[in-house]
Every structure is written in structure tokens, then in C-alpha cells.
Design a protein that fits this description.
- The protein is of the alpha/beta class and 244 residues long.
- The chain folds into 2 domains: 153 residues, 3-Layer(aba) Sandwich (Rossmann fold); 81 residues, no CATH class.
- Helices cover 41% and strands 16% of the residues.
- It contains 9 helices and 10 strands.
- The strands form 3 sheets. It has a 6-stranded mixed β-sheet with strand order 6-7-8-3-9-10, sandwiched between helices. Strands 1-2 form a two-stranded antiparallel sheet.
- Strand 1 and strand 2 form a beta hairpin.
- The longest helix is centred in the middle third of the chain and has 20 residues.
- The chain starts with a strand and ends with a helix.
- The relative contact order is 0.19.
- The site of adenosine-5'-triphosphate has 11 residues, from helix 1.
- Pfam families: ABC_tran (PF00005), BCA_ABC_TP_C (PF12399).
Length: 244
């Protein structure tokens, strides 16, 4: 994947087994977010393939990705500040809606029924993630840690089988990181998720993931179980050495 003269990703290849959690680490600018953008079709790589459950994702239009069971969160939160927490979560759920634009514009009864169903499902998720008390609060003005959970709820509303988390604990306090880790573990189990997590917080990644892939300057420099990656000299030099 190139941006002008910059090669953001170069021959990166790895497999994510269903039901596992894979951590994607690497120094700033290593290409982690670009890789997520390729998986969700925000970027189209110049070469290579991206397959999900046997299907070539690069052959899909970007809006079709959520419908295939892939959801993501964003490094800088992708919420709508003026919408309430519930409405933000319903934005995620709408990707599963079955009614078309015409039916929606005409407010046909089945549209109202579907809207109610999506609202009930959003409320279930809000309860599950401890957000019921702020359901009617606009996203703007809520504490950052709460917004991270709202974003997770919105991604889960897509009912994904693959969930991509982009720096989910960036900006959280120590205690909040531990709480978020517990929450991710719980929803992973409850929703039978496969996870790919980009994160600089090493304890979070190493505690959550079955496998870790390390990128540096757009190339994969290591891949393996967390305990091996932590000892890998190339990783230590490129990343852990800098972070320590
Ligand atoms: N839209 C873009 N236009 C130009 N260059 C870009 C664009 N997106 C990313 N890049 C460049 O591609 C490289 C990889 O960036 P990317 O954001 O994927 O790294 P990252 O590993 O996610 O970094 P960080 O940990 O800081 O989020 C960087 O050199 C970046 O400047």
C-alpha cells in the first residue's frame, strides 16, 4: 500500500484463526492503521489479497464490509457527538437493517417495527456494557473512558464475527485499562468474536492476544505467541526498546 512516495505496507501477510485474538503492534507510522483500513476497504492496496471466510474483501464495495460481519472501532473515536449514546449504537445496528430507503422515507409499519427492534437491541447492548444510565445522553461531554465503551457497543451492534479494535485503551487510566481488558474478554466470549487489536499498551496486548504480529516501516518483522514476541530481538529493538 503506497501513499505517494511512502510505502505504508509492504508484503505483510498473516492469518487470523477464527475465535482467536491477534495483536498488531509496531512503532508509530509502522502501518497498523493502514492495515485496518485495507481490511475494512477504506483503502485499496496496490497489490495483494484480503480474504475473510473465503471471500475476497477487495472485490467488495466498502459499505458491504459490515454486512459480511466485520466491525471496527477508531483510534480517535468515530462517534457522532450530538447523537445520544443509544442513537450512536443504533447507527451500528442499522447496517443490519433490512428495509430500503424508500420504505424508510415512507415510514411503513415494517420500518417502525424494525426501528423498535434495533432500539431494543441497542438497549440490550448498553445494559451489557454498563451504559444504560447514559443511553439518552449526547456523546459530547461524556468521559473519554465511557466513550470508548460506547464505541465498542456501536461496533458490537453490527453483530460482527470479526472485530477490529484500533488503540482501544489509548488515553485510558491504569484502572480503566484493566476494566476495558475484562470487558473485551467478556464480550469476546459472549459474542463468539475473532479479534484483531492494534495497541501500544503492551500489557493489554500481551494479556489479551493469542498471537502478536509486529510491523516496522510497513513490513512484518515478527509473528508469534506473546511470550515469544516480547523476547524477539527485532521487536525489542524496533518497539519495546523504544517504549521501555
Ligand atoms: N492518507 C494518508 N496519506 C499519506 N500518508 C499516509 C496516509 N495514511 C498513512 N500514511 C503514512 O503511512 C505510514 C503508516 O501510517 P499508519 O497510520 O498506518 O501507521 P500506524 O502504525 O497506525 O501509526 P500510529 O501508531 O502512529 O497510529 C506513515 O508513514 C503515515 O504517515
Amino acid at each position: 500500500m503506497r501513499f505517494g512516495g511512502i510505502t505504508a505496507l509492504d508484503g505483510v501477510a498473516f492469518t487470523v484463526q477464527p475465535g482467536t485474538a491477534v495483536g498488531l503492534i509496531g512503532p508509530n507510522g509502522a502501518g497498523k492503521t493502514t492495515l485496518f483500513n485495507c481490511l475494512t476497504r477504506r483503502c485499496t492496496p496496490d497489490a495483494g489479497t484480503v480474504r475473510f471466510e473465503g471471500e475476497d474483501l477487495l472485490a467488495l464495495p466498502p459499505h458491504a464490509v459490515a454486512g459480511r460481519g466485520i466491525a471496527r472501532t477508531f483510534q480517535n473515536l468515530g462517534l457522532f457527538p450530538r447523537l445520544t449514546v443509544r442513537e450512536n449504537v443504533m447507527v451500528g445496528a442499522h447496517s443490519r437493517g433490512r428495509t430500503g430507503h424508500l420504505a424508510a422515507a415512507l415510514r411503513l409499519p415494517r420500518v417502525r417495527r424494525e426501528e423498535r427492534e434495533l432500539c431494543d437491541q441497542a438497549d440490550d447492548l448498553l445494559r451489557r456494557l454498563g451504559l444504560a444510565d447514559v443511553a439518552d445522553h449526547p456523546a459530547a461531554g461524556l468521559p473519554f473512558g465511557t466513550l470508548k465503551r460506547v464505541e465498542l457497543a456501536r461496533a458490537l451492534a453490527v453483530r460482527p464475527r470479526l472485530l477490529l479494535l484500533d488503540e482501544p485503551v489509548n488515553g485510558l487510566s491504569h484502572g480503566e485499562v484493566d476494566e476495558f481488558a475484562d470487558l473485551v474478554r467478556a464480550v469476546r466470549q459472549d459474542f463468539d468474536l475473532t479479534l484483531v487489536v492494534v495497541e501500544h499498551h503492551m500489557a493489554f496486548v500481551m494479556g489479551l492476544c493469542d498471537k502478536v504480529v509486529c510491523l516496522d516501516f510497513g513490513r512484518k518483522i515478527a509473528e508469534g505467541p506473546p511470550e515469544e514476541i516480547q523476547r524477539d530481538p527485532a521487536v525489542v529493538e524496533a518497539y519495546l526498546g523504544v517504549a521501555a
